[in-house]
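We modelled the chain as a single entity of 158 amino acids. Its sequence is:
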Amino acid sequence: MYDFVVNSMLGKLSKWLRVLGYSVFYNPRASDNELIRIAKNTRAPLITRDRELYSKAINDRVNTFLIKSTDIIDMLLLLHKKFNIRLDINFDLTRCSKCNAKLKRCDKSLIYDKVPKEILKRYNVFLVCPKCNSIYWPGKHYKNMILILKTVKELSSS
């Protein structure tokens, strides 16, 4: 089951939605027909920047949302207004930005040989993907995301 289906033009947005805890179908090689079929079967909104795909999906009676902006702040704000998406990162909900699997908290002793030593010293929270084995921690990228989400929240309340 997916919360959203996102086409290839919105790869960055799919990563954001996964970090926010949403299950997202994203495959840059998926055809328009495949995206429409998956959105229809899962009843997940299809999010796209492709006007042709948007029209095709509307004609197939798929819940579709056309995003015109390329700015992530605008995209998140639009999705918050349209679908009331969360604007907070909750590590218990976060999904792998690469493969969409739900991440699991992990003790650093289990990953000491997979993460640089300075990272192990600096951070105490680690998340591991049980599917692709990617490892995440709240480093600089996370702090930048928090700032972006703060901006989106401020814009949504004004």
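As a brief sanity check on the tokenised model: The chain has a mean pLDDT of 96. The radius of gyration is 17 Å.
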